[in-house]
Fold this sequence. Notes:
Helices cover 38% and strands 12% of the residues. The chain is α/β, with parallel strands linked by helices. Strands 1, 2, 3, 4, 5, 6, 7, 8 and 9 form a 9-stranded mixed beta sheet that branches.
Amino acid sequence: MREGRRFVVISRAWAFCLAFLPGCATMRNNAASPDLRPCSDAFVTTIDGWQLGVRRIRPPVSDPHKLPVVLCHGLGLNATFWTITDNHLPAQLASRGYDVFLFDFRGSGNSTQVGRLGRINRRLRQTPFLEVGEGRWNVDDIIRYDVPAVLEYVKQETGSDRVNWVGHSLGGMLLFPYLEDSQHAWRVANFVGMGSTITIANAPAKDMLRANRGLRILASAMSTGRLGRPLMYVRFPGLDRIDQFYYTSENVDKTTIARFYGYTLEDTGRSALKQLDPYLEFGHFLSADRKVDYAARLTSVTTPTLMIAGEGDTMSDIPSTEQTFNAIGSADKVLMRFGKRDGHYADYGHCDLVWSRYAPKEIFPPLIDWLDKRQPLPSPQN
């Protein structure tokens, strides 16, 4: 009871502090660098009425034989996740001739529902209070509506009806069901999952399960994303127990950590968290209605697949990654492990795979090399 009261007091104090800060959305929209702002180059409308922000990073010299790359962030974050470090993955992809598209899926960045509800939520986004409908969407909605909308937008912009998909955490997890079920799975030519598993080798994942359920309780009262924004400036004791799920502190620069809290955090979506509950308890990722076991259908995934795993990742650990990898049906699949035992600088944690000061040299080049080898061949000369 004492811990519960302390939790409530801290939450209320944090909300009070937030109420007197400049508007949360305004702070992000006015960030000094475009790399820290929400995606707003264009907005894509899904058939169920969401507008998703998109950002395009064009290559200095385009390679017509390389398919566009779509980068998809994980749950509780936004697409700024990919660009809060120097020499980030989108920049490296562009420098190698790829046309890169980042998008904020529903509930993230400036993505919002169309119409009156969207206008209301844009105002609420300046406060520590929940947006209307925040708890209604789930992971299946992202798979069913957001992914096709983004693929269609990329086709309209580039003329390419196929893409390379790179997802981190949930941004990769959600593509497995898409590749299993969609009649348009062929539109993803190559898939890279970074810290993305849909099986857990040693379930239940008790620590993550407790954290997930605690977050759902907190998320029923306040905006968890905006509650975390002040952590850009000040940190309280015990925060390292939360941080360890995301990153390994010795691998990530302090500036990156500050930007993580200030610019990338979003509300997780209570229904999305609820959908992850059986995954963390029983070890298989299921549909929201629990009728479809996505993990049991991995043999139907035939897309060329690269899985990237960190030796220090507690969310998608090596045994779980190997288990997911082994179940994939693709004849062209590769697993890359990153850690000291593999000859690397550090044991990479969950977000270290993208944020670590070592990632631009150790992870990004082999990832892009893998993609390069699987791009369409140029037409033979006549």
